[in-house]
Structures are given as structure tokens and as C-alpha cells.
Amino acid sequence: MDLLAAGLSGSIGSVGYGLAAIGPGIGVGIVWAAYIQATARQPESAGLTRTYAFLGFALSEALALIGFVVPFVFGT
Amino acid sequence: MTPSAHALGSVLAAGPGFEAPGLEAFYPAPLWSFTLLGIDFEITRITIILWVATLAMIGLMIATVRRPEIVPGKLQFLGESGYSLVRDGIARDVVGPRGLPFAPFLASLFFFILANNMMSIVPFAQISPMAKFAFPLVLALICYVLYIWVGIREQGVGKYFKDILFLPGVPVFMYILVTPIEILQNFIVRPFTLAVRLFANMFAGHMLLLVFSLGATYLFTVGGLSYVFGGISFLMALVMTFFELLVIFLQAYVFTVLMGTYLNGSIEAEH
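Above: the input entities. Below: the C-alpha cells describing the complete assembly.
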């Protein structure tokens, strides 16, 4: 607490980004894990599932990207 | 609070100290500025980097097809495999059989982003134009207009918007939930994330390299035990440069693949 009192300054939005990155981090990991698993079980389906893998990746990463912008928008 | 933390705090606070890199690297002084039709234009370092990167990529691509041979040489092989990565890997496999007409567009997109991203680790340039939000934003807007226009052209205005607003095969009462999500997803989140993803990666990469290289320079001036940490920081800057190389290729590829996915959604009616 002493460090905070000593004048640690900055935007709380960066802490918010750290929190916002947790969920998408797990989500993106799950998406690619599932894609790798699908490809390992059925190698010929790789091209078919790639589109969905990228779509799912983009969707879950969107939350992290929104979190990334928040410190700039609501910054000090 | 341990005494060592206090000591570290006083070291960091004392004297001129280490100045953390800020946003000023992204706003270089204009080399030349002029006003045209009431709009102020500024030619900065980043604009010139953009020109150099684009011209270099055009030059490379022209050089690869200069003397085409049946058995391709090294240069021709580079150009052909690069183009076929986009044409076969994205235009044909992701967009679909009717996606081949989009191959030149997707390839220009891919190589333009690749060349500009590459400037973030090229010595003396060392900043990517894509680290300025305006450049990815314009690219995303081009893609935004294109996939909506293709959707209208292929499916007709009525069907295209009806399929987005009222997803077929969904129970009627679920539209309260699904329709706002679909509108948000198709018209706001897609272009926004397309632009921000590229921007955020290049921006963060540049900041990371700045922090480690400036940190190393500072620690070497402090002397004493800091030489060790300065060395570690310098090594990290090197490692991060290679990591950046991976990110450069990945982001150019992801941008193009996602654009391919959106085109695929516009061309093929969703059941």
C-alpha cells in the first residue's frame, strides 16, 4: 500500500486490459486446441475446419481487443 | 514493504533516471507539410517508410515474374509460392470455389500488410506504418465495404440483409437475442476487430522492442551490477525481434484469412 501512497500513477484502464485478456486468452487457447485435435483425428478435415477455427478465434479475441482500446479511450 | 523495494523505488525516482518510452515515437516530426483543398497533409518518417515498403514489395514482385521459366529459379519460386499461398490457401480453400476472382485482391492485401509490417524490424526504419491506427483502419474499411458489396451483389439486397437480421432456422422468439448480436457482429465488431487486431499487434511489438532496447541502453550507463541486467535486457530485445518476425507473418496471414472468411459468408448464402 505504501507504494500506492508514494504516488504510483497511471491509467486504471491498463489493469482493466489485464483482466480483459484472461477470458480471451483461455478462449483462443481452446479454439486452437480443438482445431489441432480435430486435425489430428481427421487430417483431411483440416481445410474444412480452418475457416471455423479462424472465425472462433476472431470472435473470442474481439473481447481482448476491446479491452486493449479502453485504456486509450478512458485514459487519464 | 521490504527495504529493498524502497531502495529500488529511490533508485528509480532519483536523478534523470530511466525514461519509459511513451507515445512520442508514433508522432514523428513532419518532414514536409502542405495544405491541399483545405486539408493539412504532413509527410513524416512513417509516410516515407510506407512508400519505401510498398515500392520494395512491388519491385520484388515484378522481379519474380520478370523472366518466367518452366523450371522456376529461386526468385521466381519465392514469388510463385507466395502467391499460391494466398491463391490456393485462402482464395480457393477459405473463400470457396467462387473465390478465385478475389485472389489478386487478397494477395495485394497480404503482401501490402506483410511489407509494411516487416518495416518494424528493418534497421533504421524500425517502426511499422501499421502501428499507426489510420493505416489498418483504412484497410479494414476497404474490406468492410467490399464484403458488404459482394454480399449484396451475390445474394441481392433483400436476402443479404434478411439473412443477417433474421438468421434462418432460429426459433422466432430467439430473434430478440440473436438479431442484435448478429447486427453488432456483422457491421461493427468485424471491421473494428480487423483494424484493431493488426494495429494492436504492431503497436505492442514496437513498444516491447523500445522498452527492452532503451532499458538495455540505460542499464549500461548505470554501471556496476546493472551490466548484467543490461545484458539480459539486450538479449530479450534480440529474442523479441525474432518473435516480432513471427507476429509479422501471422498478422498479415490472419488479416487476409479473416477477410476471406467474411467474403465466404457473403458469397455463400447461409443455408
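Note for the figure: The two ends of chain A are 21 Å apart (CA to CA).
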